[in-house]
Amino acid sequence: MRLSGTLLTSINTYTGIRQRGKGVYFRLFFVCIIITSIFIFGCSSIDKGFQTRSISREANDFFNQGKYEASLSKYEQIIEKNPAVADRVLFEMGIIYAYPKNEQKDYQKSLKCFQKIVRDYPDSEFRQDSQMMILQINNVIIKNKIIASQQTQIETSQQEVKVKENEIITLQEMIETLEQKIVSLEHKIFALRTEPADKVLIEKKERRLTLLSKGEVIKTYKIALGGDPIGPKERQGDNKTPEGTYIIDSRNNNSEYHLSLHISYPNEKDKMRAKELGVSPGGNIMIHGIKNGLAWVGGSHAEVDWTKGCIAVTDEEMEEIYKLVPNGTIVEIRP
After folding, report:
1. Would you call 308 exposed, middle or buried from its count of C-beta atoms within 10 A (0-12, 13-18, 19+)?
2. Does the pLDDT value for residue 185 go beyond 80?
3. Residue 266 preceded by cis peptide, ω within 30
4. Up-side HSE of residue 27: CA atoms within 13 Å toward CB?
């Protein structure tokens, strides 16, 4: 039985579209193997003597059952008993060694089978098909080596990335530990401070309150402002935070909002503007903490402007500010 027509058609198809990529190539190679196995093992057994036919049928049965090692063993018996059919048996063994479903497939052993046919059986009808199979299998071996090399590189790169990730995590933990130590140290230094602030700077756009002493920053705080923070306060009930220069003119340690420092709004400029508008300028602008009973809100209060024009900080922060800012301290509120 000649298979070269079938194999040549499949191989020519491969040659015409090999540029489509590795996936197409491998699929076509395995299609060639499967088609060949169907032609070989679907045909009648080798008809060279009764004993040879019997062993051949057993080999075919083992192949169809997926018992490839047993099938190969039977084919080796056929070669021993009937060397005249060795070329066909070697071809069938080469197919089994390269068969996709054979979990123990061995391309090197498959190559040896086909190479032996080409070398030792120059007149064999399987010689041309064997040459084609040698070409195909060599290409597969080369591609497999390339894929294995690429896979190794990928795995190495993944391991290197993992190592770097672990190093980054370790560094982040070290940074967090250092930051905690710095914060703890700052708190200790701050607690020991006895010199008061001589100015409070409030920057509305940055939502920041800064305590200053002789031009040096003592500490900064994140703040919340009035519900309508853009622009200066003009009238009673506009929910705006004033802009200008004022002083702390009083304090309340029993405030509804956990301590408060009263800002001397309105100043003369504020009063004149309100008079021109024919409105009351309003008042009662404070620096204060969280509303009593809601201290658990903590720093998240500053995520939204919620006061009626006052400047709000956390309760803990307010205790610091209350301690360091005496009455008469200048308060500058910038847009």
Report:
1. middle
2. yes
3. yes
4. 8
pTM, 2 dp: 0.49
pLDDT of residue 6: 37
Angle, in degrees to the nearest 10, between helices 127-192 and 107-120? 160
Higher pLDDT, 31 or 126: 126
Summarised one tens digit per residue, pLDDT across range 21-33 is 444 444 545 455 5
Specify the pLDDT at position 20: 43
Give the tokens for residue 135. 């070409």
